[in-house]
Amino acid sequence: RQQSQELKVLCIDNKLAHGILVLSDANALFKLNPDPGRQRVLWVGDLDEKQANAFLDKCGVLQRGDPDLARLRVRLLDETGANPQDLFDTATDAKTAAAKAVKAALPADATESERVAAAKAAERAVFEQFIEKKQSDAFTEVDSLLTQVPIDEVTKQDLRDQRANFRRLILALLENPTGVAPNKVHFSPLTASIGFKPAGFRAVTYNSEIKLFQFYAKAHEHAARRWFEDEAKASSKAAAGAPSD
């Protein structure tokens, strides 16, 4: 917040420079004071499908010429989204693992096909592990938002009354994954932000540029669908086992 104020004095009030304040987390915006006359929000979201494929091509991973890796690429983008930093980090890890697999696991006289197979297996393993972890983390965060009681970092009060609001919000997002306006769910972004800022609760966020609630990542959309499917199955099972009146 202090850096933001200093930057606005320098760039807007005194007009001495152009300035960009980069926030590392979407929800960090709520820590800044609303000041539309002196700041403009630029939202940097996931890459679109064309950009993501071009990026993976440039990184040299999950090559589309290989049917197995091409299918894994589709699964990666569909199930986790296309966060640029995630793609870069995972691609780097995959290339490192592939190089190590060829160097450490194969004899010096290994054939080229054996080297290619070892590199491919290592690369695939890294991306599969990333997808599984992303899905697991997303499910935990959805579950936390729907069942746990977040604590307001400022007032230290619990927000148990907000769970119904988040449930309504997530159900609305499942019907409209591109985004839901606050007035559609009668839920203030500022009020909601207290709940989804803490680590472990980041299933949803508020896109301040287009003024819509959105899932924090594609993985959270899938996790939310699975969460409500599990709830429905548990309810049906409980009803089937309940004694009749």
Describe this structure in words.
The chain is mainly α. The protein contains nine helices and two strands, in the order ααααααααββα. The chain has helices at residues 2-13, 49-59, 67-80, 84-105, 112-147, 163-175, 182-185, 189-196, 218-241, and strands at residues 204-207, 212-215. Strand 1 and strand 2 (212-215) form a beta hairpin. Helix 2 (49-59) packs parallel to helix 4 (84-105). It is flat.
Structural descriptors:
single chain, 245 residues, mainly alpha, two-stranded antiparallel sheet, 9 helices, 3% strand
Global morphology: flat
Largest sheet: 2 strands, antiparallel
Class computed from helices, strands and strand pairing: mainly alpha
Count of strand segments: 2
| Strand arrangement in the largest pleated sheet | 1-2
Give me the strand/helix succession. HHHHHHHHEEH
Helix percentage: 55-70%
| Overall pLDDT metric | 84
Strand percentage lies at under 5%
Number of helices: 9
- pLDDT below 50 for ≥5 consecutive residues: which ranges? none
- Terminus-to-terminus distance: 60 Å
| Rg of Cα set | 22 Å
